[in-house]
Design brief:
Length: 478
């Protein structure tokens, strides 16, 4: 099995260390597995200068040539899948099988955007004889990208793919808890022949890095995935400098289970997906609203499957769910469970930390949770599901839309009229019917309300990384 990589910053096509570093811990064992260099002010200034030079070169490279480099990097990452996945499991804790799939998912983001780089079409607008109006797309400039810890490979890949495919340079600030995925991305692009400065990778104190980068006039876009609270702060800060933002923020996804659906299948699917990545997913299904006529069967089946989830160190073959990211998540989930219990909710399974080393939390299911419980409004971001009965689809839609978030929403039904009402009525950027898959490389992904704005992926994704320029051309001087 490969060892955990030696961690570096990546600036101007070169690897560098700093005297100031941070420990990286394995959340399954609480042991230190690496030391992560923290970027100093000079490192950030060097990254900005490097990105400026990189942009001048890369923005003039033909889209098909940009695509060739991106695809070559994806090939290298596919070849290195096992090495990357092993590192992700060590720093994040997720099962190795899920880490392998995440590497492939990251490659798919790169491959899709490589293709889109050659399809960022403009258009000619009909006009009078002798006049041409042309819509032209150009890369926006240097991007400051911020990726979270819950998907160490696929989330930074999504930022890098969009920026580089569009012709931008990017300074990526990846998560300090899980740095190896981003490091492997930088290594693959370096080996694929990406010009120096187009991709720079830094780590350090998040507020120091964001404050330093966002205020710089060279940074033309802030692309962030993370919590709503941090997203609001960065959006406010960026607005002071008139810098556009792409925000993919938190969620609290509802699932509506109608009375006509296959109850057993829907419950088992929900329980399995809820525990994926230990529930540390912004699109994770969390608030399950089952019609009262099927509520008991649904809850019983869900609880049984959730309680059977195999929890442990992700390196073990049979493990389905690994640890939480850190001990702070243990505290946060424990407080949410206790608050719900005090307000009358029933804890059907789980509810606390597992004994022993590691940040392991029991798969937890709460039923009959009152609206006054904190967990009904706050994203738990952990292996915690809420199952409540509802008397009708109208009530379910009202409950589903009662939170400030709107990233993903799900429904289970076989009735066409119910599908239509959910598609039209659910306040979310991503609505899935009879599936709990919310995001694919070829589909646009993003939220509404407090879940952010802008889209990544799909044909819409690259436009956030580009400016739209209108060209008016008269054939004669008028």
């Amino acid at each position: 099995m490969s060892t955990y990589p030696d961690l570096h910053l990546f600036i101007d096509g070169k690897w560098r260390k700093t005297a100031d570093d941070l420990p990286v811990l394995n959340p399954a064992t609480e042991e230190e597995i690496g030391r992560l260099p923290r970027a100093r002010k000079q490192d950030l200034d060097d990254a900005l200068e490097s990105a400026a030079r990189g942009f001048k070169i890369w923005s003039q490279v033909a889209p098909c040539e940009r695509a060739s480099v991106i695809l070559k990097a994806a090939v290298l990452m596919r070849e290195r899948q096992e090495e990357i996945a092993t590192a992700i499991t060590a720093e994040h804790g997720k099962p190795l099988s899920q880490a392998r799939l995440e590497v492939i998912r990251g490659c798919e983001f790169l491959e899709w955007d490589a293709g889109e780089a050659t399809r960022t079409y403009g258009r000619v607008i009909p006009s009078a004889p002798g006049v041409r109006y042309i819509v032209h797309h150009q890369p926006i400039g240097t991007v400051a990208g911020f990726s979270p810890w819950n998907f160490p490979m696929s989330q930074p890949c999504r930022k890098v793919a969009g920026a580089i495919a569009a012709g931008c340079s990017i300074i990526l600030k990846a998560a300090e808890e899980t740095p190896a995925g981003a490091l492997h991305i930088a290594r693959a692009f370096h080996d694929a022949g990406l010009p120096p400065g187009v991709l720079n990778l830094v780590f350090g104190e998040p507020s120091e890095i964001s404050n330093h980068l966002i205020k710089h006039e060279q940074v033309r876009l802030v692309a962030f995935t993370g919590s709503t609270a941090v997203g609001r702060h960065l959006t406010t800060f960026a607005s002071q400098h008139m810098t556009p933002v792409l925000m993919e923020l938190g969620g609290h996804a509802p699932v509506i289970i109608c009375e006509d659906t296959d109850v057993q299948a829907a419950a088992i699917t929900g329980a399995i997906r809820k525990m994926r990545n230990a529930g540390q997913v912004c699109t994770s299904p969390t608030r399950f609203f089952a019609h009262e006529s099927i509520f008991d069967e649904y809850a019983e089946t869900f609880v049984r499957r959730a309680s059977e989830t195999v929890v442990g160190n992700g390196v073990n073959d049979d493990v389905e769910m690994g640890p939480l990211a850190n001990d702070r998540r243990i505290t946060a989930l424990t407080e949410l469970v206790e608050d719900a219990r005090e307000k009358g909710a029933e804890v059907r399974t789980g509810g606390g930390k597992l004994d022993g080393k590691g940040y392991f939390f029991q798969p937890t299911v709460l039923v009959n949770v009152p609206d006054t419980a904190r967990v009904m409004q706050e994203e738990p971001f952990g292996p915690l599901a809420i199952i409540n009965p509802v008397s009708s689809l109208d009530v379910a839609l009202e409950k589903a839309n009662s939170v400030p978030f709107g990233l993903a929403a799900y429904g289970f039904t076989n009735r066409a009229d119910y599908v239509d009402r959910m598609v039209e009525g659910l306040e979310a950027g991503n609505v899935s019917i009879n599936t709990l898959e919310a995001s694919l490389p070829e589909t646009p992904f993003g939220g509404v309300k407090a879940s952010g704005y802008g889209r990544e992926g799909g044909t819409e994704g690259l436009h956030n990384y580009m400016i739209t320029k209108n060209i008016s051309h008269s054939m004669s001087i008028v």
